[in-house]
């Protein structure tokens, strides 16, 4: 009975602490993002060419460096914090870094891939390269700002780096890379500790550069993405009740469990850091398993694509053209109403889905500790 009362007491104390934290609000002057196509705002497009129309059609009304019809989750995060959309670090035209920078590129992985973008579809700008970019940006910014004028206006002050929110959304491509190289599920699982170890190192490096506030997304249900289900064969018994490939989702959940353990270790090793682990997997799977609840009609079928069970063809990506009667015409077109689709192009979510994801994660209900985005600067007090 005494042990039970003690447990109740500590639970009550924890709830009171969380309530106090939820009422507090942080003032982040900037964001620095690391990731892949789920949060790319123009990095890959700046290096390898702009993502073609109809990318960006819903919100920007033209291609905007994002692999969706509008905004990605990091855009909604920036909006909610009162910040401008993040300029891609690699984009030299029209960028403003005074409120942060985005180092993410589509196709990026945590662990470097020994291949080219043309060979595999994976970006050479892996997480270690993104950190190197951040390191150079941080250390060269004070020197550049001393020149005054435009440099002072477009680059952040030194104190911004320790007050900014550092967001991470990466890991999906590390899982699919193994499958696309014909590895078995057990072989993919075997290299997860190495991937997670490299992720942990990068967060520690950012901390050593003054980063203190971290918002870390886990990876989504890759087994529900057409580009995975169409490329990697599975048995009918391995398809769940929603229509997703269970083996791939189970590996994603293994990765997420490991990521959560890494976050717990980092909290012990980085005493001045506030690190929030965000379960986007559960939110994304909910959109797919209960689409009507969120206003969607097509949870698996892509909006922008061509052919196949899911309106997806690896050789005919969104915006692809073909010669028809001597004329070049777009064959991988956008659907009439992207807002009814969860999936945009077989790989990425629509703006409507991204908005729903953000609405769910901003409250803290899917976070550990369960604090809202606006309170992500507050460290969890020791129990």
Key features of this structure:
383 residues, Rossmann fold, two-stranded antiparallel sheet, 13 helices, alpha/beta, single chain
Q: How does this structure look, described?
A:
- Keywords: Glycoprotein, Hydrolase, Signal.
- Residues 1-24 form the signal peptide.
- Belongs to the 'GDSL' lipolytic enzyme family.
- By secondary structure, the chain is an alpha/beta fold.
- It has one domain: SGNH hydrolase (Rossmann fold, 3-Layer(aba) Sandwich), CATH 3.40.50.1110.
- It is 39% helix and 9% strand.
- The longest helix has 24 residues, at 185-208.
- The model is unreliable at 5-15 (pLDDT under 50).
Give a nutshell description of this structure:
This protein starts with a helix and ends in a 15-residue tail after the last strand. The chain is an alpha/beta fold. It contains 13 helices and 8 strands.
Q: Give a quick account of the main beta sheet: strands, pairing sense, barrel closure.
A: 6 strands, mixed
Task: Find the structural class using helix and strand composition.
Answer: alpha/beta
Number of domains: 1
Order of helices and strands: HEHHEHHHHEHHEHHEHEEHE
**What is the β-strand count?**
8
**What's the helix count?**
13
GO molecular function: hydrolase activity, acting on ester bonds
Keywords: Glycoprotein, Hydrolase, Signal
Pfam families: Lipase_GDSL
Signal peptide: 1-24
List the helices and strands and how they pair.
Layout: H1 2-23, E1 31-35, H2 43-48, H3 73-80, E2 100-102, H4 117-120, H5 127-145, H6 149-154, H7 160-163, E3 165-169, H8 172-180, H9 185-208, E4 213-217, H10 226-229, H11 246-269, E5 274-278, H12 280-289, E6 321-324, E7 327-330, H13 351-361, E8 367-368
Parallel strand pairs: 1-2, 1-3, 3-4, 4-5
Antiparallel strand pairs: 5-8, 6-7
Helix pairs in contact: 3-13, 5-9, 8-9, 9-11, 12-13
